[in-house]
From TrEMBL:
It comes from Aquipseudomonas alcaligenes (Pseudomonas alcaligenes). It holds the Pfam family DUF3150. This is DUF3150 domain-containing protein. Residues 326-340 have a biased composition (Acidic residues). Residues 315-387 are annotated as: Disordered. It comes from the Bacteria.
Length: 387
């Protein structure tokens, strides 16, 4: 199966960065039984079946630089083909950072090698309990030339393109399709580490924690071209972060919003569920925007007449129990009848008191209901009531 057009488009937007050229010297030698002489050396000298031949503190700066190099590519890239897929928009920043670390690495190395023999001697003469241990270190010392060759900082950046063979290209296509899932897995790993710090029970969140969430989102935003789902997720995180202060401690409902967000990002499956809900919500909004219902016909505005000037109007009974009355004239527009029914409910019809003056325009029908005949509940619907 050949690669799909969208998979080729993704490859066109990424470069593969390989850090396998970074090599450190471990300064460890295999621990032999005759070196022990019946007593186990301290952990500072030996552990896990190996023995240190130099103070490990001298090597920690190199280990730190390697971790920083890994961090540079992990913050904006995703694991791919043994290296890291980096957006072409970010590759120059990545290369600049790696070059700076490379310079630091070789500066440290240029200081380490001239002092190597002296530091090895200091380690041997550290005052170990047994002479056999000192002798074991002395006989296990690595030559300086070997150390020099073993300490290197190298990396490579290259484009990846499908082969002309469809079967081979199909295997690459499968790796490309898995990039989005790999991105979710790495996002979940970072969010899980945040939860492990006690975020969900702390009651507040600091800007340091929020900066980690911001870095998660920056990585997602830089790789949005992998899938439209990645963009939906990044937009959601953006909206949550935008509502939070950029300084000080966050607590209360805002803290709860952060915990909810981080929790939803802490597992790959929960990320996919969140994306599904976001897409469903977006689909509903689009449907509402496209399929707007027709506006209902507006009834003609009624004249603003004072209740005292209203003439008696006969309202059709709504139930069999209400007295029936023949209307004086046929009503042509049913909307007027509905409007009068609404007014009757709003103003709670009451029969005009006996002392009220008779209206000039019409007479009350002889068969109109009296006040004693009106039931208090439900509201009367019979004819012959004053508005």
């Amino acid at each position: 199966m050949s690669m799909q057009a969208n998979e080729i488009k993704i490859l066109d937007q990424i470069l593969l960065v390989d850090l396998s050229g970074i090599h450190l010297w471990t300064a460890r030698k295999k621990l032999k039984p005759e070196m022990l002489e019946g007593k186990i050396p301290p952990a500072t000298l030996a552990s896990l079946g190996s023995m240190r031949v130099i103070d490990p503190e001298k090597l920690k700066p190199f280990e730190k630089i390697k971790r920083q190099a890994t961090k540079v590519v992990e913050e904006c890239g995703v694991k791919f083909l043994g290296g890291y897929a980096i957006s072409q928009d970010k590759i120059q920043d990545v290369v600049d950072s790696l070059e700076a670390l490379k310079t630091q690495f070789y500066d440290l190395k240029n200081n380490f090698l001239p002092n190597y023999d002296r530091w090895v001697t200091e380690w041997i003469e550290k005052g170990w309990e047994k002479q056999e241990w000192r002798d074991a270190i002395r006989t296990s010392v690595t030559p300086k030339g070997v150390v020099d060759a073993g300490m290197q900082f190298g990396y490579a950046a290259c484009r990846v393109a499908p082969d002309g063979d469809k079967k081979l290209a199909g295997t690459l296509g499968g790796q490309v399709r898995g990039l989005a899932d790999q991105l979710y897995a790495e996002t979940a790993e970072t969010a899980e580490r945040l939860l492990e710090t006690g975020l969900a029970t702390r009651g507040h969140v600091t800007q340091t924690t929020l900066n980690t969430v911001r870095k998660i989102n920056a990585k997602l935003r830089g790789l949005m071209f992998l899938s439209s789902d990645v963009k939906a997720l990044s937009d959601h995180i953006d909206a949550t972060l935008a509502a939070l202060p950029t300084s000080g401690v966050v607590n209360g409902t805002q803290y709860n919003a952060v915990v909810t967000l981080v929790s939803s990002l802490s597992e790959e499956e929960s990320i996919k569920r969140l994306i599904k809900h976001l897409n469903q919500a977006a689909g509903q909004v689009v449907q509402l925007e496209v399929e707007e219902p027709e506006a209902p016909a507006q009834p003609e505005p009624e004249q603003n007449v004072s209740p005292l000037d209203w003439s008696p109007v006969e309202v059709g009974a709504s139930s069999a129990q209400a007295p029936q009355a023949e209307p004086e004239e046929e009503i042509e527009d049913s909307s007027d009848e509905e409007a009068e029914a609404v007014l009757a409910t709003l103003f709670q019809f009451r029969q005009a008191p006996e002392a009220a003056p008779e209206p000039v325009t019409d007479e009350v029908p002889a068969d109109a209901a009296t006040e004693a005949e009106i039931a208090p509940e439900p509201l009367p619907q019979a004819a012959g009531f004053w508005f």
